[in-house]
Amino acid sequence: MLSSCVVSTKLKDGMLAVYNSIFCDPVFMSSEEFITVSDGKITSDMYGILKRKGILVDDEQDDLYRIDFVREKVRDKIGTINFVIMMMSDFCNLSCDYCIEKQYNIVEGKCMTNDVIDGFFQMVSSGLINLASNVEFILYGGEPLLNLNGIKYFLDRKEIALPESKCSIVTNAILLDEELVYFFKERKVNVGISIDGPKEITDCHRKYKKGNGSVYDDVQKNLSYLCESGVEWSLSITVTDELMNKKDRFFKWIAEVRPRTVAFNLLKLSFAPTEATIATDYYKDASYFLVEAHMKLQEMKITERDITRKIGYFLEHQPVVSDCAAASLNQLTINTNGDIHACQCYMNQMNTFGSVFDKTSYTIPMTSLKMFENLPINRASCLKCNALPICGGGCLVQGKTVYCNDKYLDEGYCEYAKNIMTWIFQRLYDSFRGDIPLEGR
Amino acid sequence: MIDIPDTQIQTAFSAEENDIDIIIMGSGSCVNPSRMFWYTPKEIFDDAETQTA
After folding, report:
1. What's A182's domain CATH number?
2. Which helix (H) or strand (E) holds A296?
3. Quick check: B46 contacting A, CB < 8 Å?
4. Domains: count for chain A
5. Range list of H helices, A77-161
6. Mutate to test the interface with A, among B14, B19, B20, B29 (most CBs of A within 10 A)
C-alpha cells in the first residue's frame, strides 16, 4: 500500500516528483503513472524501488511505526541545547523600524552582569543545562557591543569552562573598530553584521534613535576593518520590500562588498500588526527573491545561507525538525536579568524556563511544550505536505499572532517552503535531463 | 517512472551547497535552525522491518 506520507510536487512539463515526505527520496513519474501506482497497479520492477524509497509500505502498522520512530527520535532531543543566546544588553543605539526586539521584549536599559554569566556557567557545570557537544553561543542584544565588559568576561569564562565551544556575535557594527575586530579574531568569535544593502536600502529602515546621520555610512567604514583582518564574518540582511524592489542594485553592491557568507532574515510580521494576506504575499515574494539571490551569490562565490540550508536538508533525506531551534527546545536565551527563555524575540513571564539564580526552578514552560507538539513533524496535516522535507515550520509565534492559529501554523512560511521545494525538485529534474550544465548549478 | 540514484541527487547540487557546516556558524540570523541529523533512511527501514517481522 501507499504510505500515508506520500506526496508529490508538480514540475513544469507535467511530471511529478513523488516521495515519502519523511524520507524525501524521490522518483519522477507522469501524472498518469502516479494514478496507476495509487490504484495499486505496480510492476515488480517498480515495487522494489518504491518500497526502498518508503513510497510503498507493507501495511498501516508498518507506516505508523515509521512515523512514530521519527517522532520519538525528535522527542529524544528535547532539552539538548545547540544554541545559547546571551542577551548582552536589552537596548540599542539604533531604532530600526522592523526590529523584533522592541516589539515583545521589555527594554529596561540593562546590560548582562557578571553575576548572570557566573550563574549560567554554574547551571551548566551542575548538569542542569545539557549543552550539545557542538553548542554555539551567540552574543546578542539589543546591541551587544554596548556591553563590552560583559562580552570580555563571558569569553574568559567560556574559555575556561567550554574551550571548544563556538561563539559568534550579531552586531549593527556602529561601535566596531579595528581593535575590536582583532580582538574577535584572536578569541575566534565569528562576526555577523546587520546591514540591508546599499545606502538607499539600509537607511530606509535602519536609523539612529534621534533620526540623524546615515547608519549605512558609519557601518560601511567599519566593514573595511573586517575585510582586512581575516576574521570570519558574514552579513545578516533583512528582506524588505525595498530590497526586493531594488534587487539589481543590491546584487551589484554585494559583489563589491564580497562577504564570505550572507544570511537573509525574513521579516517577523508577528511583531507588527499585519493582515494575514499581506504577510502571505510577502513570504511568496521573499521565496522568489531568495532563490534568485542564491543563484546570483553562487556565481559570485558567496555562500547564501538560507536556500543552501534547505538544500542541505533535502540532501540528507530527512525533514528538518524545526526551522527555529527555540521551537524544537534546542535553544536557550539568557536574558540580561538572568531569566531563561527559549526564543530571544519572545521573552515574557508566560514562557520562562526559570532563572540562573534559582537552580530549583528550571523547567520547560507549557507554552514552549505546546509549540513543540505543533512542529510540522508532529502535525498530521504537515506529513501530507510536499514541503515537509525542507520546511521546519517557520516562526510558530507568527502562526499564533498573524494567522490566529491555535496550531501555531505559520501559513506564510508554508507558501515560502512550498515554492522553494518546487524549485529544488525542478532543478534536480533539469539536472537529470541535462538541462543545467554542472558549472551553472 | 524515473528512479534517481542518491549519487545523482548529491551531484545535482554543487560542493558549496553540500557544505552545510560553513553556513551555520556566525550567520547573524535571528533564527537558528534546529539541526539534527538523527537517522538515516536505511536505519529507519531496518528498524521497521525488525519490529514488524
Report:
1. 3.20.20.70
2. helix A276-299
3. no
4. 2
5. 101-104, 114-125, 148-161
6. B29
Do residue A93 and residue A69 come from a single domain?
A: no
Average pLDDT over residues A182-208: 94
Q: How many CB atoms lie within 10 A of CB B26?
A: 26
Distance CA A367, CA A381 (A): 21
Pull the grid cell for residue A180. 575590536
Please state the length of chain A: 441
Would you place residue A105 in the very low, low, confident or very high pLDDT band (cuts 50, 70, 90)?
low
Which residues have a Cβ under 8 Å from the Cβ of A153 and sit 6 or more positions away? A114, A117
Distance from CA of B47 to the nearest CA of A (A): 9
| Euclidean distance between CA atoms A242 and A439, whole angstroms | 31
Residue A176 phi/psi, 5° resolution?
Answer: -70, 135
At residue A202, what are phi and psi to the nearest 5 degrees? -60, -50
For the cut 80, the answer to whether the pLDDT of residue A420 exceeds it is yes
Q: In whole angstroms, give the CA distance from residue A309 to residue A268.
A: 19
pTM of whole model > 0.80? yes
**Is A440 within the bounds of a domain?**
no
A382 close to A388: Cβ distance less than 8 angstroms: yes
Share of chain A above pLDDT 70, in %: 96
Contact B13 A441 (CB under 8 A): yes
Please judge whether B2 and A432 are an interchain contact, meaning their C-beta atoms are less than 8 angstroms apart.
yes
Q: Which residues pair with A208 in a beta bridge?
A: A94
Least confident of A153-167, A315-329, A362-376, A425-439: A425-439
Do A144 and A89 contact (CB within 8 A), yes or no?
Answer: yes
Q: Which three cell numbers stand for residue A287?
A: 521565496
Residues B41, A46: C-beta atoms closer than 8 Å: no
Q: In chain A, which among 282-321 make CB contacts under 8 A with chain B?
A: 298, 301, 303, 305, 308-309, 311-312, 315-318, 320-321
Contact A311 B17 (CB under 8 A): yes
- Residue A307 main-chain phi, psi, to 5 deg: -70, -35
Range of the domain at A64: 6-74
Residues 6 or more apart whose CB falls under 8 angstroms from that of A356 comprise: A116, A119, A120, A122, A123, A334, A338, A340
